[in-house]
Amino acid sequence: MDRRPRSFYLLAAFFALFLLFLYGPTFTIAILSFQGPEGGLTFPMRGVSLHWFRDLFEQQAVGDIWGSFGRSFTLGLMVMVTTVIVSVMGGLAFRKRFAGSGVLFYMVVTSLVIPSILVSLGVGLIFSQSGLDVHWATSGFGAQLTWTLPFGLLIMFAVFNRFDKSYEEAARDQGATAWQTIRHVVLPIIAPSLIGVALFGFTLSYDEFARTLLTAGSHNTLPLEIYGMTTNVTTPVIFALGTLTTAFSLAVIGVFLATVWTMNRRRARQGSDAGQGMV
């Protein structure tokens, strides 16, 4: 006999509605991207085909889809690498208290609560007033770091807060230098967390719109290009583009998760081999 309280079913229904609200638009766009050649931007669908996906790979009358994708991908890699390096350095630095560490911490976190459009405006003004070119690879890169670095630093703070320093002490007792300890002991232990930081850096950069709006210059990134297409594209090709970009994002996440899974399997295998060797 089912003795679950009525509140359980209310919460389950609420959660189902939440999932529908969260993923419903994505599924709707995915469905509409398979419209037939005569299909439009709304239901009901007029046939089912891959016409609009093929249209993406043909010469577009409007927009620079693949150029903007290349810029977003390159920018995402730049932001990812920088976020990982700076986050690790910041995490190591904040393991010990130093003068101004509290103020510096709150300055880093503050960028998360400042409206993104104001950050974009401020960075764009700094570059333009300094006589520097407003470009996606310079000002856009800097603006996006104000979004990704706080996430990476917060993750590293949590990781090093739980890090067992006895591993480092054992390495130094064996004669390892500070760099050798970081390279051969610290980094392998925190590697799964580094992959998480890298995933945050790339995905947050890849789909960032507001902080890139006024800092990308004359060359759009993919989110800006898609926004521009909403004003002059009246075919389901924009839905096909949305479906492909979503699939690409999921593929990137899958690659990172597979990497973490492989690393954990290898670590478990090495631990098992070491245990058998001791026996």
TrEMBL record:
PROSITE patterns on file: ABC_TM1
InterPro entries per UniProt: Bact_Polyamine_Transport, MetI-like, MetI-like_sf
The protein, known as: ABC transporter permease
Main location, first listed in the record: membrane
Domain ABC transmembrane type-1: 69-256
Subcellular location(s) of the protein: Cell membrane
Protein's membrane topology: Multi-pass membrane protein
Segments traversing the membrane: 73-94, 103-127, 147-164, 185-206, 237-261
Entries under CDD domains matching the protein: TM_PBP2
Claim: Cell membrane is one of the keywords in the record: yes
SUPFAM superfamilies associated with the record: MetI-like
Gene3D superfamilies named in the record: MetI-like
Keyword vocabulary terms for this entry: Cell membrane, Membrane, Transmembrane, Transmembrane helix, Transport
One Pfam assignment: BPD_transp_1
Keyword field contains Transmembrane helix: yes
